[in-house]
Amino acid sequence: MSIKRASASKERVTLKLLKRNAILRDLPDEQASVVLKTAEIVEMKTRQSVYLPEDKIKAVYFPIDAFLSVVTRMKDGAMIEVGTVGREGMTGIPLLMGSESTANECFCQVPGRALVIPSQTFRQLLPNEKVRKLLDRYLQAYVNMLGQLAACNRLHSVLERAARWLLMTHDRVNRDSFALTHEFLATMLGSRRSGVTIAAAALQRAGYIHYEHGCMTILDRKGLEQASCECYEVTRRQFGSFLRPSVKQAA
Ligand SMILES: [Zn+2]
Protein backbone atom coordinates (compact mmCIF):
# COMPACT_ATOMS: atom_id res chain seq x y z
CA MET A 1 0.00 0.00 0.00
CA SER A 2 1.05 3.57 -0.46
CA ILE A 3 1.64 6.03 2.34
CA LYS A 4 -1.54 7.82 1.27
CA ARG A 5 -3.76 4.95 2.36
CA ALA A 6 -2.59 5.29 5.97
CA SER A 7 -3.82 8.35 7.81
CA ALA A 8 -1.02 10.82 8.31
CA SER A 9 -0.69 12.18 11.82
CA LYS A 10 -0.22 15.88 12.56
CA GLU A 11 2.36 14.96 15.19
CA ARG A 12 5.82 16.30 14.39
CA VAL A 13 8.64 13.84 13.69
CA THR A 14 11.25 14.38 16.39
CA LEU A 15 14.56 12.73 17.19
CA LYS A 16 12.99 11.46 20.42
CA LEU A 17 10.29 9.70 18.41
CA LEU A 18 12.89 8.26 16.01
CA LYS A 19 14.63 6.69 18.97
CA ARG A 20 11.55 4.68 19.87
CA ASN A 21 12.20 2.38 16.91
CA ALA A 22 15.28 0.18 17.41
CA ILE A 23 16.59 0.51 13.84
CA LEU A 24 16.16 4.28 13.64
CA ARG A 25 17.62 4.65 17.15
CA ASP A 26 20.92 3.12 16.04
CA LEU A 27 21.34 4.99 12.75
CA PRO A 28 24.45 7.18 12.41
CA ASP A 29 23.67 10.93 12.82
CA GLU A 30 23.84 11.73 9.11
CA GLN A 31 21.38 8.99 8.14
CA ALA A 32 19.12 9.82 11.11
CA SER A 33 18.84 13.39 9.89
CA VAL A 34 17.85 12.17 6.39
CA VAL A 35 15.04 10.14 8.01
CA LEU A 36 14.07 13.07 10.22
CA LYS A 37 13.61 15.28 7.15
CA THR A 38 11.59 12.81 5.10
CA ALA A 39 9.65 10.63 7.56
CA GLU A 40 5.95 10.92 8.07
CA ILE A 41 4.05 9.61 11.12
CA VAL A 42 1.06 7.43 10.26
CA GLU A 43 -1.68 6.27 12.59
CA MET A 44 -2.35 2.65 11.73
CA LYS A 45 -5.63 0.82 12.33
CA THR A 46 -6.21 -2.91 12.84
CA ARG A 47 -6.17 -4.83 9.53
CA GLN A 48 -4.87 -1.85 7.61
CA SER A 49 -2.81 -3.18 4.73
CA VAL A 50 0.90 -2.37 4.47
CA TYR A 51 1.53 -4.47 1.37
CA LEU A 52 0.07 -7.39 -0.59
CA PRO A 53 2.01 -10.19 -2.31
CA GLU A 54 3.74 -8.96 -5.49
CA ASP A 55 3.11 -5.31 -4.55
CA LYS A 56 5.90 -2.94 -5.36
CA ILE A 57 7.33 -1.75 -2.05
CA LYS A 58 6.92 2.02 -2.19
CA ALA A 59 7.59 2.81 1.45
CA VAL A 60 9.32 1.40 4.52
CA TYR A 61 7.46 1.35 7.85
CA PHE A 62 9.25 1.63 11.18
CA PRO A 63 6.65 0.92 13.90
CA ILE A 64 6.72 3.04 17.06
CA ASP A 65 3.87 1.40 18.96
CA ALA A 66 1.94 -0.28 16.13
CA PHE A 67 2.45 -4.00 15.61
CA LEU A 68 2.41 -5.53 12.12
CA SER A 69 1.83 -9.10 11.01
CA VAL A 70 3.47 -10.79 8.06
CA VAL A 71 1.20 -13.59 6.85
CA THR A 72 1.13 -16.25 4.18
CA ARG A 73 -2.28 -16.66 2.59
CA MET A 74 -3.34 -19.87 0.85
CA LYS A 75 -5.51 -20.09 -2.29
CA ASP A 76 -8.60 -20.92 -0.18
CA GLY A 77 -8.12 -17.73 1.85
CA ALA A 78 -6.68 -19.45 4.95
CA MET A 79 -3.75 -17.54 6.39
CA ILE A 80 -1.20 -17.90 9.13
CA GLU A 81 1.27 -15.51 10.66
CA VAL A 82 4.85 -16.23 9.65
CA GLY A 83 6.51 -13.10 11.03
CA THR A 84 5.94 -9.90 12.98
CA VAL A 85 7.27 -6.36 12.88
CA GLY A 86 7.12 -3.97 15.82
CA ARG A 87 9.30 -1.28 17.35
CA GLU A 88 12.31 -3.63 17.02
CA GLY A 89 12.24 -3.55 13.23
CA MET A 90 10.93 -2.47 9.87
CA THR A 91 9.06 -3.60 6.78
CA GLY A 92 10.57 -3.69 3.30
CA ILE A 93 13.20 -6.37 3.91
CA PRO A 94 13.27 -7.41 0.20
CA LEU A 95 14.75 -3.95 -0.54
CA LEU A 96 17.88 -5.02 1.35
CA MET A 97 18.38 -7.80 -1.18
CA GLY A 98 17.77 -5.63 -4.22
CA SER A 99 14.19 -6.78 -4.75
CA GLU A 100 11.31 -4.36 -5.17
CA SER A 101 8.39 -6.60 -4.24
CA THR A 102 7.50 -9.17 -1.61
CA ALA A 103 5.94 -12.64 -1.62
CA ASN A 104 4.04 -12.20 1.65
CA GLU A 105 1.25 -9.99 2.91
CA CYS A 106 1.68 -7.49 5.72
CA PHE A 107 -0.96 -5.63 7.71
CA CYS A 108 -1.47 -3.87 11.02
CA GLN A 109 -2.40 -6.16 13.86
CA VAL A 110 -2.32 -3.85 16.90
CA PRO A 111 -3.13 -0.19 16.14
CA GLY A 112 -0.57 2.49 16.79
CA ARG A 113 1.95 4.73 15.09
CA ALA A 114 4.71 4.06 12.58
CA LEU A 115 7.26 6.29 10.92
CA VAL A 116 7.23 5.89 7.15
CA ILE A 117 9.83 6.86 4.58
CA PRO A 118 9.74 6.37 0.79
CA SER A 119 11.71 3.33 -0.46
CA GLN A 120 13.88 5.69 -2.46
CA THR A 121 15.01 7.46 0.73
CA PHE A 122 15.62 4.10 2.40
CA ARG A 123 17.93 3.03 -0.44
CA GLN A 124 20.00 6.19 0.10
CA LEU A 125 20.85 4.95 3.60
CA LEU A 126 22.18 1.58 2.48
CA PRO A 127 25.69 2.43 1.19
CA ASN A 128 26.77 3.41 4.73
CA GLU A 129 28.68 0.54 6.32
CA LYS A 130 27.25 1.03 9.82
CA VAL A 131 23.71 1.04 8.42
CA ARG A 132 24.44 -2.13 6.42
CA LYS A 133 25.78 -3.93 9.49
CA LEU A 134 22.78 -2.86 11.56
CA LEU A 135 20.34 -4.04 8.90
CA ASP A 136 22.25 -7.31 8.33
CA ARG A 137 21.90 -8.05 12.05
CA TYR A 138 18.18 -7.35 11.88
CA LEU A 139 17.79 -9.44 8.73
CA GLN A 140 19.55 -12.38 10.42
CA ALA A 141 17.20 -12.19 13.45
CA TYR A 142 14.18 -11.83 11.16
CA VAL A 143 15.10 -14.89 9.06
CA ASN A 144 15.70 -16.90 12.25
CA MET A 145 12.24 -15.85 13.48
CA LEU A 146 10.61 -17.06 10.25
CA GLY A 147 12.17 -20.51 10.76
CA GLN A 148 11.24 -20.65 14.43
CA LEU A 149 7.62 -19.64 13.81
CA ALA A 150 7.27 -22.20 10.99
CA ALA A 151 8.33 -24.95 13.41
CA CYS A 152 6.18 -23.47 16.22
CA ASN A 153 3.05 -23.38 14.06
CA ARG A 154 3.55 -27.05 13.20
CA LEU A 155 4.61 -28.51 16.56
CA HIS A 156 3.29 -26.54 19.52
CA SER A 157 -0.13 -26.41 21.20
CA VAL A 158 -2.58 -23.54 20.80
CA LEU A 159 -2.07 -22.55 24.45
CA GLU A 160 1.72 -22.46 24.11
CA ARG A 161 1.53 -20.49 20.87
CA ALA A 162 -1.06 -18.07 22.26
CA ALA A 163 1.25 -17.35 25.24
CA ARG A 164 4.22 -16.96 22.88
CA TRP A 165 2.25 -14.61 20.63
CA LEU A 166 1.08 -12.47 23.57
CA LEU A 167 4.64 -12.12 24.88
CA MET A 168 6.04 -11.22 21.45
CA THR A 169 3.28 -8.64 21.02
CA HIS A 170 3.80 -7.23 24.52
CA ASP A 171 7.52 -6.72 23.84
CA ARG A 172 6.85 -4.92 20.60
CA VAL A 173 3.92 -2.63 21.38
CA ASN A 174 5.57 -1.50 24.62
CA ARG A 175 2.31 -1.20 26.56
CA ASP A 176 0.35 -3.61 28.77
CA SER A 177 -3.08 -3.33 27.09
CA PHE A 178 -3.93 -3.60 23.41
CA ALA A 179 -6.97 -4.28 21.21
CA LEU A 180 -7.39 -7.90 20.16
CA THR A 181 -10.24 -10.25 19.23
CA HIS A 182 -10.19 -14.04 19.66
CA GLU A 183 -11.08 -14.34 16.01
CA PHE A 184 -8.03 -12.33 15.02
CA LEU A 185 -5.71 -14.25 17.34
CA ALA A 186 -7.09 -17.53 15.94
CA THR A 187 -6.38 -16.36 12.40
CA MET A 188 -2.84 -15.41 13.36
CA LEU A 189 -2.23 -18.79 14.98
CA GLY A 190 -3.91 -20.73 12.16
CA SER A 191 -6.26 -22.27 14.75
CA ARG A 192 -9.99 -22.54 15.33
CA ARG A 193 -11.52 -19.70 17.30
CA SER A 194 -12.92 -22.17 19.87
CA GLY A 195 -9.41 -23.48 20.62
CA VAL A 196 -8.07 -19.96 21.10
CA THR A 197 -11.02 -19.03 23.35
CA ILE A 198 -10.27 -22.06 25.58
CA ALA A 199 -6.54 -21.19 25.66
CA ALA A 200 -7.24 -17.52 26.50
CA ALA A 201 -9.69 -18.57 29.25
CA ALA A 202 -7.02 -20.85 30.78
CA LEU A 203 -4.45 -18.01 30.72
CA GLN A 204 -7.01 -15.68 32.30
CA ARG A 205 -7.92 -18.19 35.05
CA ALA A 206 -4.23 -18.48 35.85
CA GLY A 207 -4.12 -14.70 36.29
CA TYR A 208 -1.62 -14.11 33.46
CA ILE A 209 -3.92 -11.94 31.34
CA HIS A 210 -7.18 -10.02 31.58
CA TYR A 211 -9.39 -10.03 28.51
CA GLU A 212 -12.56 -7.99 28.24
CA HIS A 213 -14.50 -6.32 25.40
CA GLY A 214 -11.77 -6.94 22.84
CA CYS A 215 -9.02 -5.52 25.05
CA MET A 216 -6.13 -7.73 26.12
CA THR A 217 -4.11 -6.78 29.22
CA ILE A 218 -0.92 -8.56 30.19
CA LEU A 219 -0.84 -9.03 33.98
CA ASP A 220 1.90 -11.58 34.61
CA ARG A 221 4.75 -11.92 32.13
CA LYS A 222 6.56 -14.57 34.16
CA GLY A 223 3.44 -16.73 34.16
CA LEU A 224 3.04 -16.30 30.41
CA GLU A 225 6.69 -17.21 29.89
CA GLN A 226 6.09 -20.45 31.77
CA ALA A 227 2.99 -21.19 29.68
CA SER A 228 4.74 -20.41 26.37
CA CYS A 229 6.73 -22.86 24.29
CA GLU A 230 10.49 -22.33 23.96
CA CYS A 231 9.95 -20.30 20.78
CA TYR A 232 9.35 -17.05 22.68
CA GLU A 233 12.71 -17.17 24.44
CA VAL A 234 14.53 -18.29 21.28
CA THR A 235 13.17 -15.41 19.19
CA ARG A 236 13.67 -12.89 22.01
CA ARG A 237 17.34 -13.81 22.21
CA GLN A 238 17.72 -13.61 18.44
CA PHE A 239 16.47 -10.03 18.42
CA GLY A 240 18.74 -9.18 21.37
CA SER A 241 19.39 -5.44 21.61
CA PHE A 242 16.61 -4.66 19.10
CA LEU A 243 14.16 -5.40 21.92
CA ARG A 244 15.95 -3.25 24.49
CA PRO A 245 13.23 -1.48 26.50
CA SER A 246 12.30 2.03 25.50
CA VAL A 247 10.40 4.51 27.62
CA LYS A 248 6.74 3.52 27.77
CA GLN A 249 4.27 5.92 26.19
CA ALA A 250 6.84 8.68 25.91
CA ALA A 251 6.92 10.58 22.66
ZN1 LIG B 1 6.54 -22.68 19.72
Can you describe what's shown?
The chain has about 250 residues and is α+β, with helices and mostly antiparallel strands. The chain folds into 2 domains: about 150 residues, Jelly Rolls, CATH 2.60.120; about 90 residues, Winged helix-like DNA-binding domain superfamily/Winged helix DNA-binding domain (Arc Repressor Mutant, subunit A), CATH 1.10.10. The protein is about 40% helix and about 20% strand. The chain has 10 helices and 11 strands. The strands form 3 sheets. The protein has a 4-stranded antiparallel β-sheet with strand order 1-2-8-4. A 4-stranded antiparallel β-sheet has the order 3-7-5-6. A 3-stranded antiparallel β-sheet has the order 9-11-10. Strand 5 and strand 6 form a beta hairpin. Helix 5 runs antiparallel to helix 10 and helix 6 crosses helix 8. The protein is globular, with a radius of gyration of 17 Å. The structure holds zinc ion. The site of zinc ion (ZN) has 7 residues, from helix 6.
Shape summary? globular
Class inferred from helices and paired strands: alpha+beta
Rg, please?
Answer: 17 Å
Spatial order of the strands forming the largest sheet: 1-2-8-4
Considering DSSP H and I runs of 4 or more, what fraction of the residues is helical? 40-55%
- Report the count of strand segments: 11
The CATH topology assignment of the largest domain is Jelly Rolls
Parts with pLDDT < 50 across at least 5 consecutive residues: none
CATH architecture title of the largest domain: Sandwich
Order of helices and strands: EHHHEEEEEEEHHHEHHEEHH
- Kindly estimate the percentage of residues that lie in beta strands according to DSSP: 15-25%
Q: Helical segment tally? A: 10
The largest sheet is: 4 strands, antiparallel
CATH superfamily of the largest domain: Jelly Rolls
Task: Count up the domains.
Answer: 2
How would you state the average pLDDT, rounded?
A: 89
